[in-house]
Amino acid sequence: MRSNVVLWWVITVFFAIVAVTYTVWNLLDANHGHVEWVGTVALLFTAFMGSMIAVYLNKTYKAQGGELPEDVLTADIDDGDPELGEFSPWSWWPLVLAGSATLFLLGMAVGHFLLPIGLAVFVVAIVGWVYEYYRGHFAR
User: Fold this and answer.
1) Which of 18, 48, 50, 71 has the highest count of CB atoms within 10 angstroms of its CB?
2) For residue 45, what are the domain limits?
3) Does 58 share its domain with 7?
């Protein structure tokens, strides 16, 4: 985790230096002679976002009270927490959900008549995915 914090601070410093270099380069350019704000602001925001991630990871690292098994080089796979959740490898609902997102976005791009269709398929997919363990062969 500590190496991730250092990596994000390096990324932050890199983008800050690139933003300053980009701005100075635009000011010294004979054709422009003024600041090109879109690139400068984008590079500064990228540096800012890297610093936010670095601060978050640093606070998480200090709050966890020691190294995680994933961070120790001599740790085995079994040392980590084996419980990752319950997943249904046979479920088709995520594909239906992706299809509803496709319909909705296609409706935004091509024709607005597809928006309610995509929204309706989305509602059906969410309800089906949430309640798939309460119906059929896998009901509890």
Assistant:
1) 50
2) 2-71
3) yes
pTM exceeds cut of 0.90: no
How many domains, in total, are found in the chain?
2
Residue 81 tokens, joined: 């927490």
Q: Are residues 13 and 53 in the same domain?
A: yes
Is 25 contained in some domain?
Answer: yes
Phi, psi dihedrals of residue 9, rounded to the nearest 5°: -70, -35
d(CA 133, CA 121): 20
Nearest to 121 by CA among 92, 91, 101, 94: 101
Going through 1-140 in order, the beta strands assigned E by DSSP cover none
Query: What's the pLDDT band for 134 if we cut at 50, 70, 90?
Result: confident
- For helices 114-130 and 93-109, the axis angle rounded to 10 degrees is 160
Distance CA 60, CA 5 (A): 10
Q: Which among 61, 123, 126 is positioned nearest to 91, based on CA atoms?
A: 126
